[in-house]
Amino acid sequence: MTTSEPAHPLDLAGIGIGPANLSLAALTQPCSGLRAAWYEQRPAFHWHPGLLIEDATLQVPFLADLVTLADPTSRWSFLNYLRHTQRLYPFYFAERFHSPRAEYDAYCRWVAESLPGLHFGHRIDAVRWDPQDAVFVLEFTRTGRGGPADGTTGTVRARHLAIGIGSAPHIPGALRHLTTAQGRHAAPVLHSADYLRRREALLAAGHITVVGSGQSGAEIALDLLRRRPAGAEGLHWLSSSQAFAPMEYSKLGLEHFTPDYTRFFHALPEAVRDRLLPAQWQLHRAVDHGTLAALHDELYRRSLGGGWPDAVLTPGVTVRGGRRLADGRLALDLLHRLQDERSRLVTDALVLATGYRDRPLDTLLAELAGRLRRDAAGRAVVDECYRLALDPGISGTVYVLGAERHTHGVGTPDLGLVAHRSAVILNTLTGRERYPLPERTAFTTFGLSGPWAPAGGRPETEFAIPAGGEALPR
Fold this sequence. Notes:
- By secondary structure, the chain is α/β, with parallel strands linked by helices.
- 23% of the residues lie in helices and 20% in strands.
- The chain is built from twelve helices and 19 strands.
- The strands form five sheets. Strands 1, 2, 3, 4, 5, 6 and 17 form a seven-stranded mixed β-sheet that branches. Strands 8-15-9-10-11 form a five-stranded parallel β-sheet, covered by helices on one side. Strands 12-13-14 form a three-stranded antiparallel β-sheet, with no helix packed on it.
- The protein is globular.
């Protein structure tokens, strides 16, 4: 069965409803005259449900909600959510700058359940360009839980698109075969994204191995440690990184997550951006100080009676592969790169906190593939305003929300830049300043000149910089 199209095309159609597009939807809602709708294949909003571990907090302040850093007066702010749920005074007295992760999920669900124009249970199957009507045509299938509308197909027409399809759990190829359980007593192997759903099965295992030294790996290692009996922790935490390193969280370090730095990064040559990104891993792929401190405190507490807890924390180790043994356990092949030493670890359960990868745009935009401009590495070119560079024959715009790390830097997935990106998109889309944005957002000046340099600085010609680095007046 196929549903009919709307009588008039939308001005904007969003694909995917995660925090990025939910922010855009919230800031679009008060823009009168802008016809917009969003589509998501899941039946409802959920934000990393497998990692809503008790006591885990966001790594950004509560002001990094969907709207506040673009419009503090919005009805969709986190503070208004607290007011709506009659929790404003408890929050006030709690004095918590960083909210529990589960509370952020509840806040986003409150917005998603209240906003008009959100269509869950709609999977976008294809996107094509209709040159006759100058619109994008989105083909969808209704999904759900066995309702009468399931399987219904249809189309939506829109002048512009906003694609925020997020990321998917990444499992290294050498370990992928282990995720297929063999038999009732097979050792569980799972990605960290599925941790809470399978936590009880993990706790029943005699020995557990966690692979990955980012925030998720640290939180899972800590949660397992707290739930295992003293003296029988049976835990290995392994990382290919050379240290269980703390996140860079100094105030000036955090200025890498500002619009000023995003503009600076975008203006750099492609080859420079590609060299810079991997070197910035400690800005976003390490562990916050509080989690590392809590892990050490827990290990120390367990050593008070004498002896050491049965927990092994080893950085610098790569899991090169593994196999299932006849008794259902796992044998992991390890390599310590600095020692160039190989070993085997037998374990009863494996958690892969091995991160996420952006879902590829090419699958969704297959029919537009030949009309996308690409960089030297074959990636889509994204301009400063989050627009894909398209063939001139396509008059519509495709905005990307989350697929632009190679052009916009480490702040791309950061919740603190979500509202600003939405405001930039809406200002660009409507051709007017719907949301006034600050000219300057960082004390750091990231370049000597260029559009990122703050207004009001000294003219470029005022100083000469000699080879030794000392600035001399002209």
